[in-house]
Amino acid sequence: MNVIPIQPISAAAFAPFGDLIDCSGDPDKVINQGLCGRFHDRAEMAFSDGRAGLSLFQAEPRQLPLQLEMVERHPEGSQAFIPMSEHGFLVIVAPNVSGGAGATGQPGQPIAFETQPGQAINFHRGTWHGVLTPLHAPGLFAVVDRIGPGRNLEEHWFDDPFLVQRP
Fold first, then answer.
1. What CATH number corresponds to the domain at position 53?
2. What pLDDT digit, counting tens, does each position of 36-45 carry?
3. Count of domains forming the chain
4. Strand intervals (E) in 95-139
5. The domain containing residue 116 runs over which residues?
6. Residue 119 CB partners (closer than 8 Å, separation 6+)
7. What is the pTM (predicted TM-score) of this model?
């Protein structure tokens, strides 16, 4: 079984797949009588049609090492996972072997990241990714994604699963 080591997430390493959403750097603006820093426009939400919807997901925590059998993508819209707890979570992505996001191509070699508390992610439209994978309870997330007509989910099952683990 091929092993995928988990690496810490960074904006640069995650950029080909989406946006790392956090409060790094200085706020873009200070509001609310100087008591709130606004970190403005931290993710590019993109949809072919439809609208942005905000849903809550309650996912069961997973144990490491994790067997990765499948990845999915959403060709019609981006998808943001925003944890509603103080825990980081596992993020698995795979490049599109046809080069870049799009409606064609299969996933390449998966990459695993672990977020830190206070970080969220946004997958670019058409990015191959693993399912929502909290490592700690409660596994509650706010998810912003496309609500609209049409098929917006593709799955790819690997012939040989991968083992995702900490180095």
1. 2.60.120.480
2. 999 999 999 9
3. 1
4. 111-114, 120-123, 128-129, 133-134
5. 2-165
6. 9, 20, 21, 22, 88
7. 0.91
pLDDT single digits (tens) 9-37:
999 999 999 999 999 999 999 999 999 99
**Which is nearest to 78 in space by CA: 128, 43, 48, 123?**
123
The residue count of the chain comes to 167
Token code pair at residue 83: 């944890």
- Which amino acid is located at 136 in the chain? H
β-bridge partners, 41: none
* Rounded-to-integer distance, Cα 37 and Cα 145, Å: 25
Give the three-state DSSP class for 96. Answer: strand
b/e 118-154 (16+ beta carbons within 10 angstroms → b): ebbbbbbbbbbbbebbbbeeebebeebbbeeeeebee
